[in-house]
Design brief:
single chain, mainly alpha, 5 helices
């Protein structure tokens, strides 16, 4: 469906001051030629001026509710920042402890493997299992638990503050 010049002019009029230079030039030229669109533009401008002239005052309940929500979200952001700081410190601690304990655990597994007469492939697989299994187990538990907590908290906060 093709649009005619009048429809395009009305659309540009409703956009107001958010027009590009070429659109403004075209609209001025069209309004100079078209009396119907010029009256439409004057009516729209009159409505906009009337709306801007109306005083706008917020009710005290609206102000209190807005302040409460802003404070709530600010506290949530603060809590999130604190949690991320703790998570960062925990990651740093895990990284440092892993850096220090991996060589010791490797040597311990090698010594146990040599003492027990176990082939190198077996004690190396044991090392990998001892190294990775606890982290995987804790990850699965935290992921499963965290998903349920997040969904419950989101639902509770949606009901309480909306």
């Amino acid at each position: 469906m093709t649009r005619n010049a009048h429809d395009e002019a009305r659309e540009l009029i409703t956009l107001g001051e958010d027009l590009q230079d070429a659109q403004q030039l075209w609209l001025r030229a069209h309004l100079d030629k078209c009396e119907v669109c010029r009256h439409y533009a004057e009516a729209v401008n009159g409505v906009v001026r009337s709306l801007r002239a109306l005083p706008l005052a917020a009710d005290s309940r609206l102000v209190r509710a807005t302040q409460m929500r802003v404070r709530f979200h600010a506290s949530r952001l603060r809590e999130t920042r604190e949690r991320l700081w703790l998570v960062g410190l925990a990651c740093l601690g895990v990284g440092l402890s892993a850096t220090l304990t991996i060589p010791i655990l490797w040597r311990l597994c090698a010594w146990i493997g040599a003492w027990a007469g176990v082939p190198a492939l077996i004690w190396q697989a044991g090392f990998v299992f001892v190294f990775i299994a606890p982290a995987l187990g804790v990850s699965v538990l935290l992921l499963a638990r965290g998903t349920h907590i997040t969904n419950d908290d989101a639902e509770r906060s949606r009901r309480t503050y909306v």
